[in-house]
Amino acid sequence: MSLARTRLGRTLGSRILHLHSPFTLTTPNSRSLFNNKISLVSGLRMASSLPKLPVFEAIVRHDPNSTAVIHSRSGRRFQYGELLGDVAKVRNQLYEKAGRNDLDGERVAFLVENSYDYVVTLLAILAAKSIAVPLSPAFPASELQYIINHSEALMLLASNRFTPKAQEVLQTDLDSEPILLQLNKFQGGSAHENITLEKTGPGAAGMMLYTSGTTNRPKGVLIPQAAMNAQARSLIQAWEYTPEDHLLHVLPLHHIHGTINAIFTPLFSGSTIEFMFPFNADAVWKRFAAPFLTPDQTYDPVKTGQERITFFTAVPTIYSRLLSTHKGLDPEMQSATRTAISPTNLRLSISGSAALPTPIKRAWAELSMGNVLLERFGMTEVGMALSCGLDVNDRVDGSVGWPLPGVEARLVDVDTHQVIEKGQEKDADGRERVGEIQLRGPTIFAEYWRNPDATTKEFVESKDGKGMWFKTGDVAVRRPVEGAGKSEAPTQKDWTKGDMYFILGRKSADIIKSGGEKVSALEVEREMLSLPQVAEVAVLAVPSGKWGQKVGAVVILDKEHCTKWTPLEMRRALKDRLASYKIPQVLRVVDHIPRNAMGKINKKMLVKEVFQDDFSGDEMGL
Ligand code: MLC
Ligand code: AMP
């Protein structure tokens, strides 16, 4: 046992076990306990067998020598052939550490960086038929404490890098103590093992993502693996992922966008996932350009040692940052990056998680010499639901397209509460009818964890007996678009037909989308009200060119505590309570917040009154 490891073991106490050295134990007591556990599970040490989940069946079929994952900065590569062997190892270690050979339906939280290790960990938890709860390492311990308590996590897995963070969380006041397991890093080059897929069924395997909503604490969205598979299949059909796709991954991994669209689905298709996180515009431009930095700027993966990026999926803020930094690149880089993102090289660039402003879409198309961003609409609870089509004519400005394969969508009139049937998109006066988007199908989540009331509230019964509809809270109109959904091109699919959906906004003013991150105004208000400085507060969505929306706070100070409060002081006060993107970017201190007779604040009016000055000067800088 190395000195460093002994020290680390001591610091963590007897709860820790190093994954790749399962016999390295930290205390004599834990050794005997552990040995007992080994014998209990020894019959299950099936390094070469996994349950027959569709994702494993797909991975087994891929060329074992093809690249599954690349770490962009180090250049380290991991092949499809090594993936399932590594998954089986980690799955077995979960059993060993838990001292149980059945983790069916248990929640396993994990703090692992964007890497091959994250992919292996996620799949290993599914292989154990458990529910994977990915945590954001950027969250303060108090937010992670909430998730661990709420999900009743049996285990907390942490990479070496995030073990200190995991320890910090374990030192908070937890309802129960999850078993901590430190995962060592895979270096690449594991043997290609023959993995047997056993017909044991998926059990309760799935993923649970925490999302802010109209309640003051985030909700756990339970996505069974069957829904994860349905989401992946739908996207493969719509966006045609292939083994030739090379995806540059710049997104956080505790959201549906970064996990299902950019990990789970590419794994189904045998695509390559290259991790480059956190997002940095200069680094992304350099990576795009790399395979084209040849004397005549032709694509040369052999000489440059870099394959081209064919697939990129991001939020509008990321495209906006890329556009505004491009001007600062030197001429050679400008030219190479333009070639790299042109449609011949970058097969598909997708925008979603927030409304795509048309100026960003146009500027990207111009810079890339014709790559029109494909916009789609999704949600943690439903995966991807609506999408524009692969055909360029089907990427209509301002529209999120059509229901994806396998997804059923309808609009329910926000005024009359009637379903807006096909052909009834206009009222008697010829005005467009605005409706809430409701969805159903195999891609939809199962429930809000331990929250039957919220689950019941967000689903409505159907009249046709074909299943309940999920209420998204997003409002839209449907209209025909000349020339869209009509192409005979081979990429045209049956789902890109009929009227297209255009999102207008959300029903609730209490949900803010900033840089693709969802923020609950109520959650922020709750934390602010617990500060001694704050007597009253309203948290609002302030329109922003750069972020889509910014979190804004209108505050009445508690004069007994302070008479002045700066944005910096506010940020400092909230730093340990809220993830940084939830902390208001703009603050106004006022003497009075107008309320109606019911005591309610009209946030849509208040934002106009108070933040008028912030609406300008925050353009995208394209
Ligand atoms: C970071 N900051 C934000 C922010 N992200 N503030 C508001 N909104 C955000 N989204 C804060 C940081 O905490 C920091 O504050 C300051 O801004 C500058 O940080 P930065 O380093 O410049 O920001 P960066 O790390 O580059 O992040 C920006 C970003 C990131 C756009 C790359 O927010 C991001 O990856 N967003 C994507 C989120 C996502 O994947 N959403 C999908 C959800 S699923 P300070 O005070 O510390 O300086 C979903 C369904 C669907 O929506 O349809 O896909
Ligand atoms: P989240 O809860 O973080 O998964 O965010 C889901 C929400 O993001 C949706 O309910 C929408 O409000 C918003 N959203 C996602 N994609 C789009 C889009 N293309 N246009 C507008 N809003 C979007």
UniProtKB/TrEMBL annotation:
<dbReference type="InterPro" id="IPR000873">
    <property type="entry name" value="AMP-dep_synth/lig_dom"/>
</dbReference>
<dbReference type="GO" id="GO:0031956">
    <property type="term" value="F:medium-chain fatty acid-CoA ligase activity"/>
</dbReference>
<dbReference type="InterPro" id="IPR025110">
    <property type="entry name" value="AMP-bd_C"/>
</dbReference>
<dbReference type="InterPro" id="IPR045851">
    <property type="entry name" value="AMP-bd_C_sf"/>
</dbReference>
<dbReference type="Pfam" id="PF13193">
    <property type="entry name" value="AMP-binding_C"/>
</dbReference>
<dbReference type="GO" id="GO:0006631">
    <property type="term" value="P:fatty acid metabolic process"/>
</dbReference>
<protein>
    <submittedName>
        <fullName>Acyl-CoA synthetase family member 3, mitochondrial</fullName>
    </submittedName>
</protein>
<dbReference type="InterPro" id="IPR042099">
    <property type="entry name" value="ANL_N_sf"/>
</dbReference>
<feature type="domain" description="AMP-binding enzyme C-terminal">
    <location>
        <begin position="523"/>
        <end position="600"/>
    </location>
</feature>
<dbReference type="Pfam" id="PF00501">
    <property type="entry name" value="AMP-binding"/>
</dbReference>
<feature type="domain" description="AMP-dependent synthetase/ligase">
    <location>
        <begin position="56"/>
        <end position="449"/>
    </location>
</feature>
